[in-house]
Amino acid sequence: MKLFKIFLWLFLIALTSSLILAMASDRIGEHKSSTFGKAYADFKASWGGEIGIILPKFIRKKKAEEKVWDAKSGNYVPTQTFLDTVLTPDSIQLSANLDYKEQSFSWLNFNAFEASNEEIYVIQNSTKETFPLYLNLQSLLFVDVLLSGASLYTDFVLEIHNKNKVLTDIRFNEPALIWSDFKPGESLEVRLKYKVKGIDVFRYLTSEYRNSIIKKLNAKIIVNSDEFELYRFGLSHRIVKENGKTIVSFNLENFTTTEDIGISFLQANQYLDRVESLVARSPLACIVFILVIFVFSQVQKIRFNYLHYLFLVSILVFYYLYVTYLIRFIGIWPTFLISGVLTGIMFYVYAPRVFGKDFAYKIILPSLGSLTVLLSAVFLLPIFRGLLFITIMFVFFVVIMVAIARSKVDDWPIFED
């Protein structure tokens, strides 16, 4: 009867703890999709979203004559039209200075930045004809933010530098005449300067030139932070640090690419998926912890009452609850640190006093630390998370099996009258 009661009690503890942890995991998913998602949408609607700068297109318009069917006369009549040819610049220089600073909104932090940009395009008339040169300056591409209505261009200047001509009558997304007589052998140096705000991602859409050979491209992105990664890492690049800033540079010649040049900041919510996966698997960690405590308390003849199991398991449960809710407001490492400290306090004020230092520090603490902090670190790894999780569970079960094999089960306190 005693054996049945204790197993029933442990089953109820495991079941209740698993339900609590399952609800905590769902809460992370809700936070990711609704709480964070709504705040993210509201913030980027006012500040701006991911920035992808579409490089301008230089267009040669050539007069041509074609015949069009005229229904009234019943004949083909000649009409004048223009054939557009997109010209690839001889050289492209891109320079961006990003002032990165987290912005708080609805108690959440976002990777906000303001970028000061300068683009220099040198284009040469390599033909034997004189023609008007047009520029199609396309508006910024905001990923998922095109409908937000956020206007983020400031301090915009467009000029033909070597001709001392500032272009003012420019409309986005439609060809604008920038030089009426582009003569054979003539070169134009077109410069764009502007500032733009965004979050998470800053990139130049060099993939827009994927059907052309770019003769020379020099790009430099300066940012006052090292908490970022390359948006795409296939293109040859160099990263250096100078005066507290990180400089990412690209120097390429005679190439074509489908990749974009840029950086992406490490998002405050990037670990939500991993933390959700961690908490979703925490019920198994809870069950293993109960098994460890039960088996070793019997092997070492530590007499447990029902509340002892409840309080010890609650330490593990509270760790994952702290992780669930703290991750919303602070970074991943502070979350794990604070959760570990708070649950460590719970362990310190209870376990050594009740079970003695030997059992508390040799059995409970290593098991608790492995099934909380160590397991949390495993789920931050980019790969092998599942394999390492299974390995940890395997080690625990081997330890339990060895402990049972070396003990006399008939002498366990639970079998005493």
Automatic annotation (TrEMBL):
Instruction: Give the superkingdom in one word.
Output: Bacteria
Name the residues that span the membrane. 278-299, 306-323, 329-351, 363-381, 387-405
Q: Which UniProt keywords apply?
A: Membrane, Transmembrane, Transmembrane helix
What is the protein's given name?
A: Cell envelope integrity protein CreD
Q: Which organism is it from?
A: Leptospira perolatii
